[in-house]
Amino acid sequence: MLTFIGLGLYDEDSITVEGREALRDADRVFAEFYTSRLVGADVADLETAHGVDIEVRDREGVERDPEAILSAAETDDVAFLTAGDTMISTTHTDLRMRAEDRRIDTRVLHGVTAQSAASSLTGLQNYRFGKAVTLPFPYAHGGDGVPESVIEAIEANRERGLHTLVYLDIKVGTGPTGPDPDHEEYMTADYAAELLAEGWADTVGVVVARAGSPEPVVAADSLSGLADREFGDPLHMLLIPGDLHHVEAEALVGLAGAPESILE
C-alpha cells in the first residue's frame, strides 16, 4: 500500500487527523520537500511529533528513480509525504500511476492547499479564479523579467474577469550556477511584485504570506506599492484580482488594507 499524505501548510500540526493516524501506522515513510515545504517545521520536528523516521527523497529520487518507494510499497504500508495537498503536483500523480501499474494499492489523504488558503484569507471567491501560474526566478528560465507564458496567462484571466494565483518560485538543491545540495531560495512577494509591476504598475495585487501559520499576512496594494514593502519569512503567494464582486472588494479593503478606490 502506498498512501499519499498532504501535510498541510505550516508545521507538524497542520496535518489532518486521518493523515496523522495513517502516518503513524506506516511501516516506512518517504517525503519530498522540493516542490514545497513546511516553514514552521523541519524533518526532525515531524519525526519527533509523529514518532516516525522519514526518508527524504530529492527530485531525482521521486521522478526518475522511485524504485525504493515502489518496492517498499509492494510489501509494506508506505506513506509518502508532501507539504500542502499531496496531489497538486503532477510529479506525485506520476508516482501514483507507476504504483498502480505495478498493482500496488494507493490512497490519497488530502491536506489544506495554498490555493484554498489564499481564497479564504483574502475573501476572493474561489470559483472566480482562472488558471494559476508559477513565476520563476529569471535565472531559472534563462531570460530577464517575466516569461511570456506567465504574462499571457494573467492577461487571459484578466480579460475574462478572473483572478490569478501566482505561485512564487522555490529552488531547493539547484541554484543560479546549477545543482547545489545546500541551496534554498524562496521568491518573496515584493520581488515578484517588482517583476510584474514592469507591465502592471498600477494594478492591484494581493500578498499572502505564511498561510496556515498562527499569524499570516495579507496585504493589498498596487503592484508598485507592494514592491516597496517587506513581508517577512516565506512562503509567499501573490494574487492578481480580476473583476471584483462588491463583497470581494470590501473584503480586500477590510482584510488586506486595499486602497478604497477599488470600491468605486
Task: Summarize this entry quickly.
The protein contains eleven helices and twelve strands. With 264 residues, it is an alpha/beta fold.
Description:
The structure is a single chain. The protein has 264 residues and is of the alpha/beta class. It folds into two domains: 2-109, Cobalt-precorrin-4 Transmethylase, domain 1, CATH 3.40.1010.10; 114-263, 2-Layer Sandwich (Methyltransferase, Cobalt-precorrin-4 Transmethylase, Domain 2). The chain contains eleven helices and twelve strands. The chain has helices spanning 17-25, 43-50, 59-64, 67-75, 90-101, 114-122, 138-141, 148-159, 189-200, 223-226, 246-256; strands at 2-6, 28-31, 54-56, 78-82, 106-109, 133-135, 164-168, 170-175, 178-186, 204-209, 217-222, 236-240. Strands 3-2-4-1-5 form a five-stranded parallel beta sheet, sandwiched between helices. The chain is globular. The mean pLDDT is 93. Pathway: Protein modification; peptidyl-diphthamide biosynthesis. Pfam families: TP_methylase. It comes from Halorubrum alkaliphilum.
Estimated radius of gyration? 19 Å
β-strand percent reads 15-25%
What string gives the helices and strands in order? EHEHEHHEHEHEHHEEEHEEHEH
Uncertain stretches:
none
Total domain units: 2
Main sheet: strands, sense, barrel = 5 strands, parallel
Q: How many β-strands, per DSSP?
A: 12
Q: What's the tally of helices?
A: 11
Subunit structure: Homodimer.
Catalytic activity: 2-[(3S)-amino-3-carboxypropyl]-L-histidyl-[translation elongation factor 2] + 3 S-adenosyl-L-methionine = diphthine-[translation elongation factor 2] + 3 S-adenosyl-L-homocysteine + 3 H(+)
GO molecular function, one term: diphthine synthase activity
InterPro entries: 4pyrrol_Mease (IPR000878), 4pyrrol_Methylase_sf (IPR035996), 4pyrrole_Mease_sub1 (IPR014777), 4pyrrole_Mease_sub2 (IPR014776), Dphthn_synthase (IPR004551)
